[in-house]
UniProtKB/TrEMBL annotation:
UniProt cross-references to PANTHER family, sorted A to Z: SHORT-CHAIN DEHYDROGENASES/REDUCTASES FAMILY MEMBER
The species this protein was found in: Mycobacterium helveticum
Alphabetized UniProt keyword annotations: Oxidoreductase
Name of the protein in question: SDR family oxidoreductase
Family matches, as InterPro entries: NAD(P)-bd_dom_sf, Sc_DH/Rdtase_CS, SDR_fam
Pfam assignment, any one: adh_short_C2
Top-level lineage group: Bacteria
Keyword Oxidoreductase part of the UniProt annotation: yes
GO molecular function, one term: oxidoreductase activity, acting on the CH-OH group of donors, NAD or NADP as acceptor
Family: Belongs to the short-chain dehydrogenases/reductases (SDR) family.
Classification of source organism: Bacteria, Bacillati, Actinomycetota, Actinomycetes, Mycobacteriales
Length: 268
């Protein structure tokens, strides 16, 4: 890691109090940036403030409230004098098919995952024009294909993927880059669903790399996309999923035909 790659830069991270967002706050601080971490839940923000007193401002913000998001971005510029990167990361999930998901829940999922990216980008872009800055959205592999029983989340993340492309082309000539990271399963809640004894083996089996990701492995991708190392990348939805979406979903032919496969190899 280059501890100076983001020196002098100012970054806002939404959903910065926990999981991928908190790892992203740490990563940018480690790479020299000043960071404003925003979250609706003050607990995680407090943990970060206890740990870092320099170059970090925390702010309780509900990203579904456009005025609050505008205040957040203005507060970042007031605190540090500029804005270089807006990380629209906050997200929420609900289970269900279109038949199961109630309209209020559908709206909530759209508000947190999609409207918030629109609000954050809308507030940030005038400041990013001044710095030649960039936006990184946390989308998901659930924005690239469907997941059984996750219809609202997949619809919202699919929209984030295309919003990323559209903002990239609209603002490229203003010197702004817009990208997203599309994580696969990431262990943000140890002891939660991905650690459940029934689920862990399924994840390990289905993911070619044999494990779920860690928040820091997504934070590093966000920091890369925000950096000059990605200076010619815009409109890209970068998958970080241990190979999960590289797979067609067909059976593992190597396992199924292991004997025949080995016999054929021996015969060669
Ligand atoms: N963990 C995964 O497997 C995974 C996979 C793909 C994409 N993602 C995406 O990564 C992003 C971060 O998720 P995570 O896994 O770190 O989850 P997380 O639950 O660890 O963190 C999400 C954070 O967002 C905050 N948040 C929720 N609603 C908010 C609101 N209205 N305003 C402000 N903050 C709000 C929460 O308080 C929490 O701190 C999300 O966009 C999520 O959809 C996660």
């Amino acid at each position: 890691m280059d501890s100076t790659r983001h020196s002098g830069r100012v970054v806002v991270v939404t959903g910065g109090g926990h999981g991928i967002g908190a790892a992203t706050v740490r990563r940018f601080l480690d790479e020299g940036a000043s960071v404003v971490a925003a979250d609706v839940n003050p607990k995680g923000l407090q943990r970060l403030s206890d740990e870092f007193d320099d170059r970090l401002v925390t702010r309780v913000t509900d990203v579904t409230d456009e005025a609050a998001v505008r205040d957040l971005v203005d507060a970042a510029v007031a605190a540090f004098g500029r804005l270089d990167t807006m990380v629209n990361n906050a997200g929420a999930i609900t289970m269900g098919t279109v038949v199961d998901v109630e309209p209020a829940d559908w709206r909530r999922i759209m508000a947190v995952n999609l409207d918030a990216v629109y609000f954050g980008s809308r507030a940030a872009i005038p400041h990013l024009i001044a710095t030649g800055g960039n936006i990184v959205n946390t989308a998901s592999i659930s924005g690239l294909a469907g997941n059984y029983g996750l219809v609202a989340y997949c619809a919202a993340k699919g929209a984030v993927v295309n919003l990323t492309r559209n903002m990239a082309i609209d603002h490229a000539r203003q010197g702004i880059r817009v990208n997203s990271v599309c994580p696969g399963p990431v262990n943000t809640h140890p002891g939660g669903m991905m650690d459940h004894p029934n689920m862990k083996p399924v994840y390990e089996h289905n993911i070619p790399m044999g494990r779920v990701g860690e928040p820091a492995e997504i934070a590093s991708v966000i920091a890369f996309l925000a950096s000059d190392d990605a200076s010619f990348i815009t409109g890209h939805n970068l998958v970080a999923d241990g190979g999960l979406t590289a797979h067609t979903g067909e059976p593992n032919f190597t396992d199924l035909y292991a004997e025949e496969f080995r016999a054929a190899q021996r015969a060669r």
